[in-house]
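A.,

Following up on our hallway conversation. Structure tokens first:
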């Protein structure tokens, strides 16, 4: 991922400049808030660049301070709209997206403002590496169903057996809702190989199996 991309967003927000590795694993939290989840999750992912995106400047500043205080060098905070950042990222550059407790916009006339739309899901699909994941969590059952239906309708995703990382429950809203005994609805989706990619993989496996059989017979 081009380092100057995130530097430009950082400069525009007034935050200190930062660098992002051009290679290696990267996961993105959309709507990182004050950085609670990222700072809990970072301990599990020391070799992964964790990018938090939030449109509110004060939240980004708090998230950055929290990461610096805990000396996590693998956390990058971007003050920008998620759509803006997703638009500029190169395809197949992300290992996972985390979308936890996004604004539910509960009124029917406002639901078009929700982040989890088919358009954004398609963009995340392009950005994910093969086998990459989208983790989603909300306390609004209606939003949970909407997001899960969109994933089911997208031919490039499958619901994963594993759920989202446990660290989501230690986030600000995770602790708040758990303390209030409010149910949190979570699912994960995995990016599947395209038909062409699967065909190539099958052909490769057949070639490998054929080579092994020939060696055994010789």
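Then the amino acids I'd put at each of the 218 positions:
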């Amino acid at each position: 991922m081009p380092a100057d991309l995130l530097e430009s967003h950082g400069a525009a927000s007034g935050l200190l400049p930062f660098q992002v590795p051009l290679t290696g694993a990267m996961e993105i939290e959309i709507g990182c808030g004050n950085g609670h989840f990222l700072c809990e999750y970072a301990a599990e992912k020391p070799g992964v660049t964790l990018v938090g995106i939030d449109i509110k400047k004060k939240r980004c500043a708090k998230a950055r301070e929290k990461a610096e205080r805990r000396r996590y060098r693998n956390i990058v905070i971007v003050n920008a709209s998620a759509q803006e950042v997703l638009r500029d990222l190169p395809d197949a550059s992300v290992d996972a997206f985390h979308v936890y407790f996004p604004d539910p916009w509960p009124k029917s006339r406002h639901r078009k403002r929700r982040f989890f739309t088919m358009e954004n899901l398609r963009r995340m699909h392009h950005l994910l590496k093969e086998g990459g994941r989208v983790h989603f969590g909300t306390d609004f059952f209606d939003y949970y169903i909407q997001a899960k239906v969109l994933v089911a309708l997208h031919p490039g995703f499958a619901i994963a057996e594993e759920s989202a990382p446990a660290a989501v429950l230690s986030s600000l809203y995770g602790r708040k809702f758990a303390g209030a005994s409010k149910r949190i609805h979570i699912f994960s989706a995995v990016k599947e190989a395209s038909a062409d990619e699967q065909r190539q993989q099958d052909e490769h496996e057949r070639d490998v199996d054929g080579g092994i059989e020939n060696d055994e017979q010789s």
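The chain has eight helices and seven strands. Curious whether your intuition agrees with the design.

B.
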